[in-house]
């Protein structure tokens, strides 16, 4: 899989792996930081940057992130999961508009005459744009008859769906934490690896070593990430070898969420109200920060599948520690949302999971065991349209007629924003909105392991082996009356009635 940061991503994971090895061996004390820095960057020549001193500073900051900390003391107050490593960010051009070799230094000087800020001056061979005066209006580029002025939009800013990225006077990236929805799209867009997320591997290792019941929860997107031979049972076996007490597939949480959201949809349909799905934390953050009225009036009150499984496990095993594994950066922020109780204690991405495996020399291997805890509908939560498909399935299992229901499936920041703008303006024509911030849904998340087409091919092979159990039928095996399925933690429902169906065919 080729990303903008392909050349640095392996090194990022190597730092996490080495820190995790030290944590397993209880060696995160003394001079471990200096020793690790010099082990990874021995010198005398630099491999990635201009000098080994910058490389070593970046390793120090990556070590901090691997410990779940902010990279530098001046960012100590930041609560954002996503952080900028300033020494890696200074390679990007400060100017957004630059004059290229296409410039003929013509006599007409259309660019100079079009600039209202006096930012363009004539040079010997070409005109020059003063970045200190340029306001990035773009008039010069539009006026040039030779298309000689290029707009250099930084990849991180281009990837951000909510305009949360700006720059300081030195051209260094700044993330507006009030606007940031923690989607993580900026991370792999940066070709210098200057944007990264905090990792909690060391905390997870300490929990395991303390003897607590640490239970992994694998996202529905897991099937297909590591090839068609690595099933959920394979992942479960590797996690147990690592020291986890057990693993549960979060597709089961998808079943739980679908069952409760379907009740909301049935009620909303009768009231003529639009409801949005609740699974994607970046979409929920976009609503909360940019569309507060719609967040209050239209969002589903059902918890996400990750939270559902965490609450289920904590009800079954009081005092256990829950760890979500998936392709999502925003799940890290969701797990830290103090308004949602008993959510996942920690979140790790697939890249972090693989670093953890390497730190104990554990490999993912094909196994003959069969393991299925979710219905096929819960498993499909990972793809665009999968959440709505599962909710509609539950409505049908309850005997509801769904043929006239209209749905707006949004996958990607722009599609989500457009739908919410229409909802705010009262011009949305659909009954329900499924919002996923990543193109293709969770399968296309920022921390996916392979290219999306590779994942889908392997995923389809694995999903074809799943049995055809119904959603509500499946949930009757679980104590749905032992934990809350609502964001506020209320138990204002009869679990038996929630699982009732008017027809039994599946």
Task: Measure the end-to-end span.
Answer: 39 Å
What would the principal axes of the Cα set say about the shape? globular
**Rg over alpha carbons:** 25 Å
* Number of beta-strand segments: 15
Helix-strand category:
alpha/beta
Order of strands across the biggest sheet? 10-9-12-13
How much helical structure, as a percent, in the residues?
40-55%
Major beta sheet summary: 4 strands, parallel
Strand fraction: 5-15%
* Structure annotation, total helices: 22
Mean pLDDT: 92
Taking pLDDT < 50 over at least 5 consecutive residues as the criterion, the unreliable ranges are none
Walk me through what this model shows.
By secondary structure, the protein is an alpha/beta fold. The chain is built from 22 helices and 15 strands. It has helices at residues 6-24, 32-40, 52-66, 86-89, 110-114, 139-143, 155-159, 185-189, 201-209, 232-242, 251-271, 281-290, 292-298, 305-316, 330-335, 350-359, 376-379, 386-397, 413-425, 452-463, 471-475, 495-498; strands spanning 82-84, 97-99, 120-122, 127-129, 149-151, 165-167, 173-175, 195-197, 214-218, 246-249, 275-276, 321-326, 346-349, 407-411, 432-436. The strands form six sheets. It has a four-stranded parallel β-sheet, with helices on both faces. A three-stranded parallel β-sheet has the order 11-15-14. It has a two-stranded antiparallel sheet with strand order 1-8. Strand 3 and strand 4 (127-129) form a beta hairpin. Helix 1 (6-24) crosses helix 16 and helix 12 (281-290) crosses helix 13 (292-298). It is globular. The two termini are 39 Å apart. 47% of the residues are buried.
